[in-house]
Write a structure and sequence with these properties.
Shape: flat
Helix content: over 70%
Distance between the termini: 46 Å
Number of strands: 0
Order of helices and strands: HHHHHHHH
Length: 164
């Protein structure tokens, strides 16, 4: 995590991305929470580390938006949520490896049984972060997210009941 953060700091990624967003992403600013969530998820999945993803993306998100703004808070939340989601889904993550070893089960079986649950929550989170960029109110977005996850669970229950 420290090495990745030092490398991205040395490359000036924080300044480059912040300036890029300021200059070119004005029209899609409302989509940035969902984009940050996707980037954090994919980066953590590829590297197997949520903490490394924090080290890379938190300075970038902080440079793009002041944390005191509503969109800054939402983007920071998207960064943290995506990093943890990607780390949880990654087969090379230390926590995933330790969980399968602790449960004394086949590692690939453990990963493949966790993916449907994690991807369901990730999909609902992605939609919620899309809405958060539009609404920019944490309490309204949280309520919508809770309703969405309950609806998704009812749909899954209905689909699985029909199969039985």
């Amino acid at each position: 995590a420290w090495t990745l953060k030092t490398m991205t700091d040395s490359l000036g990624a924080k300044v480059f991305i912040a300036e890029f967003v300021r200059n070119y992403a004005g029209a899609v600013v409302i989509l940035l929470p969902a984009i940050v969530f996707l980037i954090a998820t994919l980066l953590a999945f590829a590297t197997g580390t949520s903490w490394g993803t924090f080290g890379i993306l938190i300075p970038i998100v902080d440079a793009m938006f002041p944390i005191s703004s509503a969109l800054g808070t939402v983007c920071m939340s998207a960064c943290l949520a995506g990093a943890v989601c990607g780390d949880h889904c990654s087969p090379i993550s230390d926590t995933t490896i330790m969980a399968s070893a602790g449960a004394q089960c086949n590692h690939i079986n453990h990963v493949s049984t966790q993916l449907p649950y994690a991807l369901t929550v990730a999909a609902v989170s992605f939609v919620t972060f899309l809405l958060a960029g539009l609404i920019q109110n944490a309490f309204i977005t949280l309520a919508i997210g809770i309703v969405l996850i309950i609806l998704v669970l009812f749909v899954i229950k209905k689909v699985t009941t029909k199969k039985e």
